[in-house]
């Protein structure tokens, strides 16, 4: 009789242990999927915003460059916008070197 109780108790412990392991594995997998989804969502949002900004800004910049160019279709070198830490600059002339 004692042997049967020990077997039942051992079987119960094994069942509980396997259930805990199963739930831990599932929780870990869900966390991995959520992390991957979050990273992909952030990357997609970043790429989408970049594409939208690029498509909205580029034609306007090109129009400004064409308008400020001389008789040729190529923009004057000083009219080409330059990207710097604060955004686009339309000219690099004037001011000290530190202001650029």
From TrEMBL:
Q: Where is this region: Disordered?
A: 66-100
Official protein name in the record: Derepression protein
**Species whose genome carries this gene:** Escherichia coli
């Amino acid at each position: 009789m004692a042997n049967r109780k020990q077997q039942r108790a051992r079987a119960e412990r094994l069942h509980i242990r396997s259930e805990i392991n199963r739930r831990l594995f599932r929780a870990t997998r869900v966390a991995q999927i959520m992390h991957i989804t979050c990273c992909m969502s952030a990357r997609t949002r970043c790429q989408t915003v970049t594409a939208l900004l690029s498509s909205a800004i580029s034609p306007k910049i090109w129009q400004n460059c064409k308008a400020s160019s001389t008789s040729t279709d190529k923009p004057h070198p000083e009219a080409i916008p330059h990207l710097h830490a604060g955004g686009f600059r339309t000219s690099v002339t004037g001011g000290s070197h530190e202001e650029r």
